[in-house]
């Protein structure tokens, strides 16, 4: 783009803030179902960080750095959610039932390990995949319908 | 000592409620600015200020309800507000948010 704006400050800030947001979303993911947090809001935070990187550096650059097909990510998340839900059949329990235990980890102390975290991992991956699929589809559709009619395949990654 | 602490707690509660009322008036004025702002840049700045007021709202609610659970929310609102403001700024300047060009 010839008249691209000078966004050096934005690009430099994105390096800091997107990784801050990624770390914070992981914290939200693990803070789990006893305090505010969980898979959904953690996934939204991760999606927001990735969208910030896409806005700062453009689609091509971030696709080169993160070669992730977000539809496959969505399918993986739903599959993890279904399998961990159906895993309770192995122990003779109803669908979606979960359990937890307390373990003692050195340097951290008593930790609660819940099997709901595994289900939350599926929710996390699904939310990241869905949000980025929607946002990137809208961005590419707008760009191709208005100015970029040079026969570029919009569905190629 | 305990009576002093009780007085202090009640004063903090009262001041927090007064601050909530003032913040509500501020948000209403900013919504008027968003609705009838002459240019889109005015609307962007007003939305940014509404987000800052919502952060203060969450912090004051954490004080009033005496719970630490709102502290994460304040940080999350701040970061998402930054992303939203950046998105509005890029939209006003370029028209498309994400570059899909080849170069």
From TrEMBL, chain A:
Where this protein primarily resides, as one coarse class?
A: membrane
- Compartments, as annotated in UniProt: Cell membrane
- GO CC annotations on file: plasma membrane
Protein name (Swiss-Prot/TrEMBL): Multisubunit sodium/proton antiporter, MrpB subunit
TM regions (residue ranges): 12-30, 36-56, 68-91, 121-139
Instruction: Note the Pfam families from the entry.
Output: MnhB
Species source reads Terribacillus aidingensis
Question: What keywords would UniProt list here?
Answer: Cell membrane, Membrane, Transmembrane, Transmembrane helix
Similarity-based family: Belongs to the CPA3 antiporters (TC 2.A.63) subunit B family.
Domain Na+/H+ antiporter MnhB subunit-related protein spans what residues? Answer: 9-132
Signal peptide residues are none
The membrane topology term of the UniProt record is: Multi-pass membrane protein
Automatic annotation (TrEMBL), chain B:
Keyword set for this entry?
A: Antiport, Cell membrane, Ion transport, Membrane, Transmembrane, Transmembrane helix, Transport
Identify this protein by name.
Multisubunit sodium/proton antiporter, MrpF subunit
Molecular function (GO) terms listed? sodium:proton antiporter activity
Tell me what organism the protein belongs to: Terribacillus aidingensis
What parts of the sequence cross the membrane? 12-32, 44-67, 73-92
Q: Kindly list the GO CC terms recorded for this protein.
A: plasma membrane
What superkingdom does the record give? Bacteria
Asked if the record carries the keyword Repeat, the reply is: no
> How is the protein disposed in the membrane?
Multi-pass membrane protein
Its subcellular locations are: Cell membrane
- Name the family: Belongs to the CPA3 antiporters (TC 2.A.63) subunit F family.
């Amino acid at each position: 783009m010839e008249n691209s704006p000078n966004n050096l400050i934005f690009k430099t800030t994105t390096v800091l803030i997107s990784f801050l947001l990624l770390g914070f979303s992981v914290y939200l993911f693990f803070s789990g179902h006893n305090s505010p947090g969980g898979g959904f809001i953690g996934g939204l935070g991760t999606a927001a960080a990735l969208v910030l990187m896409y806005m700062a550096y453009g689609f091509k650059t971030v696709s080169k750095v993160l070669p992730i097909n977000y539809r496959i990510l969505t399918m993986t998340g739903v599959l993890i959610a279904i399998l961990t839900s159906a895993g309770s059949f192995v122990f003779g329990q109803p669908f979606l039932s979960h359990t937890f235990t307390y373990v003692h980890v050195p340097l951290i102390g008593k930790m609660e390990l819940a099997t709901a975290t595994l289900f939350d991992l599926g929710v996390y991956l699904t939310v990241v995949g869905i949000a980025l699929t929607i946002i990137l589809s809208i961005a590419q559709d707008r760009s191709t319908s208005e100015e970029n009619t040079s026969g570029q395949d919009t569905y190629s990654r | 000592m305990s009576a002093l602490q009780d007085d202090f707690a009640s004063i903090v509660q009262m001041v927090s409620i007064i601050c909530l009322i003032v913040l509500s008036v501020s948000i209403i004025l900013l919504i008027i600015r968003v609705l009838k702002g002459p240019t889109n840049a005015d609307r962007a700045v007003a939305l940014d200020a509404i987000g800052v007021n919502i952060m203060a709202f969450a912090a004051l609610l954490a004080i009033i309800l005496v719970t630490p659970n709102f502290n994460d929310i304040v940080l999350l609102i701040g970061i998402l507000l930054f992303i939203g403001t950046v998105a509005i700024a890029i939209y006003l300047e370029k028209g498309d948010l994400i570059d899909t060009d080849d170069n």
